[in-house]
Amino acid sequence: MLIDTHAHLDTPDFAGDFDAILSRATEAGVTRIITIGTGIASSRRAVELAEKHAQVFAVVGVHPTNVQDEIGEFLPALRELALHPKVAAIGETGLDYHRLPSESEAQSSPAISALQADVIEDIEASVMDGAYRNAQGDAFRMQLDLAAELGLNVVIHQRDAWDDTLNILKPYTGRLRGVFHCFGNQPDQAAEILAMNHLVSFTGIVTFKNSALAQETATSVPSGSFMVETDCPYLAPVPHRGQRCEPAHTRLVAEKVAALRNVSLPDLAAETTATAEAFFRLSGSENPRA
């Protein structure tokens, strides 16, 4: 029995064969799926799917790269969604500095790109990027505050923003737990967040030939400190790499992690399921707050 702890079932990729996707997941031993919101509309769809399907639970939040797309104050709408009995956490939220606005603008305009060395352009880029980072940080803190208020844990997205992410999280130590989803960082970074009582989660990346770092971390983290996920429809594991990923592929992720750790699949499944049930407060119930 496995739990896909991070899926995006509300995306159009799954609209044409949704029931078949759930059936294939069940056949693969994936009995529960956590579908993750990336904005208010996405979170609302996640809740609707959780209402319709007993094996689906929702996480609601605003993804860092979507913060500036949300119109007005999103927190009241997010709080209302978070009160739904099948909402298991807040997220995904966090920080993502991978592609800053100045880089996107430079790529879209050769004229701007040619002037990057110009002092005025440098100042404008710094202001633009600073505002982008600040908006993400503010949204991250608001969602952490909401999670602490409601007694929920948090699904965390982190990309190229390690130090800032940890600095924002530190004041919440003891008030909530987070899972760093799609974890591909090195073992000492995993140890750093585990020491703060947070978790990590592994995707199909661990099956890739060029994923030595993720594989090393999956091998080294202690039992009870990690979960498995797909992040579907993205990051399909081998042998489906390059194709649409789906919840059934959680089994392939789990098989790879089990092989790396030299344990049986049933043992790995039991361990990660227990960790997920505790983190998301599922406890075998259709109501994570029961």
Give a short summary of the structure.
The chain has 290 residues and is of the alpha/beta class.
Provide a descriptive summary of the structure in words:
With 290 residues, this protein is of the alpha/beta class. The chain has one domain: TIM Barrel (Alpha-Beta Barrel), CATH 3.20.20. The chain contains eleven helices and eight strands. It has helices at residues 18-27, 40-52, 75-82, 101-108, 110-114, 119-150, 162-169, 187-194, 212-220, 250-261, 265-280, and strands spanning 2-7, 30-36, 56-60, 87-96, 154-159, 178-180, 199-202, 226-228.
Distance between the termini: 21 Å
Helix percentage: 40-55%
Which structural category do the helix and sheet elements fall into? alpha/beta
The total of helices stands at: 11
Question: In terms of topology, how is this protein built?
Answer:
Blueprint: E1 2-7, H1 18-27, E2 30-36, H2 40-52, E3 56-60, H3 75-82, E4 87-96, H4 101-108, H5 110-114, H6 119-150, E5 154-159, H7 162-169, E6 178-180, H8 187-194, E7 199-202, H9 212-220, E8 226-228, H10 250-261, H11 265-280
Parallel strand pairs: 1-2, 2-3, 3-4, 4-5, 5-6, 6-7, 7-8
Helix pairs in contact: 6-7, 10-11
List keywords for this structure.
290 residues, TIM Barrel, 11 helices, eight-stranded parallel sheet, 8 strands, globular, 44% helix, alpha/beta
